[in-house]
Amino acid sequence: MGLDVPAVPAPCGAGTSAPPRRPGSIRRTSTIDATWPDGMGGETILDGRARDLVTSPNGTASVVAEARMRVVLDSRRLIAEIATTPERPLLDGLVGQSGMGGHRGRLAEVAAADVSAATPLHLLLDDLPGATLVSGSAFRPWYGMERYLAGKEEVRRRVMTGVCTGYQEGSSALAPDGTLRWEQHRERAVGIDDLDDDSAWHELVDHHEVSMRRARRLDLWVSGPTVQVDAFFQDSSTLPEGGRQSIHEYALTAEADAAGFVLRSVEPTPRVLPYRECPLAVPNTTDLIGRPLGELRPMVLSVLAGVAGCTHLNDMLRSLADAPALASALGALSDR
Questions:
Q1: Which residues are within 8 A (CB) of 60 and not within 5 positions of it... i.e. 6 or more apart?
Q2: Mean pLDDT of the chain
Q3: What is the domain partition of the chain in residue ranges?
């Protein structure tokens, strides 16, 4: 028997990635582009870029922080190479380690300063497991389903029941034995660079081969005693005929008090999701209200674990932990 899925919240379709920049705000954007020079099964090249941009009250823009990341994963998803700007020599300790399980724990040891300061570089490094997890699905429209699934034999046999809201028992995503049906909803993406403002995003690379991109935007501004957040999250991949398809896409607004950075409200909007059950995670996000923003990275993974959460919504919610650092950067510039 299938699950009873209410009409609301329901995905409302792909949308534009960014509103006009608000005077007196800070915008953090990041992208991680995955490519495969030797095709599916070969090395994965991850090109990460992030930027913090302050828009002054008179509308002028100033870059206050930037970061780059290049990671090469071998066929087992072990880190073969890693290089970043700014340079962090201790990251060499991640070479030979998994870019998936246990990565964030190891990152806390070799990049402790970036973790505590919530830098743009930390956002890229922290996002490595999530971006890697979804990246391989970029091959589906290029290879066709039969060829694609031939390279996913291990995953095809894996029981996914209980992993997330979309994979709860009775979901349309799952066969009776708990394995995936592989019948996902996707739709044409609106390009994140399809905007009139050249400063809306950092510099992007236009890929025409098989490629997956995880893109994030977080706008923050202070309104009286509150901090306001408007955010966007998208996983999208290139198409053989040109353009991109959106696989996961959320928008989100949130409010916290400016003194203690305690979350007062959060409203995710599902836009594009693979299964009709995925939005069932949205109402559970109210369980985070009253929690300090700076503690959300670990807290989201415990409060919204398993069928209580959506993997990709959780990734978006975790980035709210960057808000105190962004507010500090915005305040520092305003005080000059």
A1: none
A2: 94
A3: 25-334
